[in-house]
């Protein structure tokens, strides 16, 4: 504002008062006239800018300049001033959203479109040409996970997502024009990674009480196990069972610890070693399963008495048999083992 632009004044072929000219400009808030008269010099007419121009609001100003003489009646001449406003890089690119919120499953393939950001610049020419670039990614491991097209603003996956590793990413994007100096605008894309049931439950032994005495009472704790599933929600909710059947009870509400409990009495002489398969399944669809084998040996208890192969032995001896003669051999067996099966006769 205050800039002055010289105008060529009007001419009048009359003389004296009939050639005394005055000027008026059609009403407007951006321009005014300044007429300077001097006895020594020819009068000078200037167009003065009174308010800053804005090409994006009014790209062309059309003004009517009138010149009137001092005659009676007064005569008037007019001309039109067409003022085209040249663009200046006075507008920074603006995104249509400051935050783009996106959700993608962790199974999304490489090349999947994450988001398409859009920024506009009301300037023209190079002042309005916008390019996009990534200025930061949180966490940093996402730096090579996304590819941004600098012209279209498309963001695509260049790797694989893993909900169990990183659950959300924030990508900060800059839109910059090609003016001098360039102006820029900013936005961010927040990507929420959705869980997919891609992890099977894992089972491991925390403590194992083996071998188990065969005279152990029902309800005896055989093993303490831990169960985990890296997925979340229903995908990470686990239930367990054992085959052949032993009682399985949850030790905590989250079912991450379970105990194996005897549900019936053991008999080493029938089954000396139990091979149990513990199965853990999650609540995903489809469900994933993890298994583990437990080998539980049974410790002998002295629960079997020696048994003769017959209860009565009938023997006939001659009365003249010599002392020390073996006339019968008795045999007894015991199903227990170790010292529990060592037999003495009396």
Automatic annotation (TrEMBL):
Domain Cadherin, residue spans: 10-95, 96-203, 204-308
Source domain of life: Eukaryota
Nucleus is among the record's keywords: no
GO cellular component, one term: plasma membrane
Keywords per UniProt: Calcium, Cell adhesion, Cell membrane, Glycoprotein, Membrane, Repeat, Signal, Transmembrane, Transmembrane helix
Membrane topology: Single-pass type I membrane protein
Gene3D superfamilies: Cadherins
Protein known as: PCDA5 protein
Organism: Machaerirhynchus nigripectus
